[in-house]
Amino acid sequence: MSVVKADWQEGFLAGDTRALARAISAAENEPEVVHSFLQEHSGRLGRAHVVGITGPPGAGKSTLTGQLAVTLVARGYSVGLLLVDPSSPFTGGAILGDRLRLPDLAQGSSSQIYVRSLSSRGSMGGLSRATADAIKLLDAFGKDIIIVETVGTGQSETDIISVADSVVVLAVPGLGDDIQAMKAGILEIADLFVVNKADRDGADKTERELLSMLKLQASSSGWTIPVIKTVAIRNEGIADLADQLLAHYEFLQTSGLLLEVRTARVKSELNELLQLRLTQEFQKVVGAARYEEYTQQIVSGNISPYEAVNQLWQEFVSEIKRSASS
Amino acid sequence: MEKKIRVLIAKPGLDGHDRGAKVIARALRDAGMEVIYTGLRRTPEQIVTAAIQEDVDAVGLSCLSGAHNHLFPRVVELLRERQADDIVVIGGGVIPDADIPGLKEAGVKEIFTPGTSTEDVVAFLKTHVGR
Ligand SMILES: Nc1nc2c(ncn2[C@@H]2O[C@H](COP(=O)(O)OP(=O)(O)OP(=O)(O)O)[C@@H](O)[C@H]2O)c(=O)[nH]1
Ligand SMILES: [Mg+2]
Predict the structure, then answer these.
(1) What is the CATH code of the structural domain delimited by A46-254?
(2) pLDDT grade, residue A4 (50/70/90)?
(3) Is A196 in the pocket of ligand 1 (CB under 6 A)?
(4) Which of A21, A71, A314, B120 has the least C-beta neighbours within 10 A?
(5) A180: helix, coil or strand?
(6) E strand spans, A152-309
């Protein structure tokens, strides 16, 4: 293990792509190593603009993401793409096909674009812990802009706001009956809307519907959510999208919202890590058998879950005290 | 978490047919592997860049156009140039028996011809990759 670790860390700091790729694998397979690396190099973090792209299956997210990356690179930015695909829940295997849709330039012809396909590995369509770490690694590696593609399945897209500074939500003409059918949640998380496949009938109607919905939703932040029409396969509207994205980041910085958003993010990450740690410690100290016993007690109605938690907590605390004094 | 075998499946060359590649991709997925499918008409340069960026353990090349004698060794060579020759390269498609020894000599680890069952490919990868 330590050999593998030394393997990528030096190369990573020297800007070697293979080492970056190895580091992201490590985020999936041995996260502790990555966490201590990131901790050691925390000064490299927080510089990248993180963009989330979400929307229904087949809306053109990968095509658009690839075109956007090429456009941004042409403007002098270095870009990292994370293409997140839900994995097959039974075998744990996955076919990650998002890369297929990238334009030639994003396929590996430009050294300024790094592309990584990730399966969400069992986290039920949401973003995995590894995705958040991969974002940090790309940030530490020095990428200016990191774009994360996730499929909007109705439950996972809210995860994207916990990692992205700017969220782009894709809609397509004729999707379902109308935009009203889109989940309320997905509308609330958008900083920018894109109506992709604008070469198809109904794009104007979709655009109008989005605009009128946005009018109902008072903007308290001072940012006016734009609706941008694109034809990703023909690279139309992508420059406009790039302009608006950069403008949004500028807005976040000048308004002070960026700091606010990132503070909130740190807080929820801290919470999450703490909960994880607590659960692990709890299971270690109290033991799986006691959990099972309490579960049975609750099922058979001998005890309420609240009382069970009280008793488990007592056991935990006294066990901790005992081991501290011995 | 358990390390999953990652495989890049690519079709270099100009033929526009990828049914075989998709069958293999599904078989590998069903065997618990992560398969990155990059589609048709990729250049060896694109394939190698993708393999490195994706940190795969193996690259599966499929070629029906007859250009395998040029394309497969080119991928191996580029991987070597970029110090990534620990990535296992295997090939498949319409490949005459007479070409196989030359391809293996060039560094292609194994060639699977149309008669091969997908289980053979799965078994081969399970024994030849893994860190
Ligand atoms: N007509 C039209 N087709 C498009 C456009 N953009 C993408 N497509 C096509 O839509 C299909 C899906 O594109 P992808 O980029 O794979 O869409 P996606 O949202 O990433 O798909 P998933 O990741 O599978 O959810 C492909 O056949 C694209 O060629 C567009 O602007 N117009
Ligand atoms: Mg996609």
Answers:
(1) 3.40.50.300
(2) very low
(3) yes
(4) A314
(5) helix
(6) 166-171, 192-195, 227-229
CA distances (Å), B45 to each of B42, B50, B83, in order? 8, 9, 14
Sorted by where each begins, the domain ranges of chain A are 1-44, 46-254, 268-325
Mutation target to probe the B interface, by most B beta carbons within 10 A, among A10, A34, A117, A276 is A117
* pLDDT mean across residues, chain A: 86
How many Å apart are CA A316 and CA A312, to the nearest integer? Answer: 6
**pLDDT band at residue B101 under the 50/70/90 scheme:** very high
Indicate the CATH number for domain B6-126. Answer: 3.40.50.280
pLDDT, residue A1, reads: 37
Residues forming beta bridges with residue A145, ordered by sequence position? A49, A79
- B16 Cβ under 8 Å from any chain A Cβ: no
Sorted by where each begins, the domain ranges of chain B are: 6-126
Instruction: Enumerate residues 6+ apart whose C-beta is below 8 A from B29.
Output: A88, A91, A93, A94, A95, B35
| Per-residue model confidence as pLDDT tens digits over A260-301 | 988 888 888 888 788 888 888 888 888 888 888 999 999 999
ipTM: 0.93
Q: What are phi and psi of A59, to 5 degrees?
A: -70, -15
Q: Which chain A residues touch B45 with a CB distance below 8 Å? A: 108-109
What is the helix, strand, coil percentage profile of chain A, to 5? 55, 15, 30
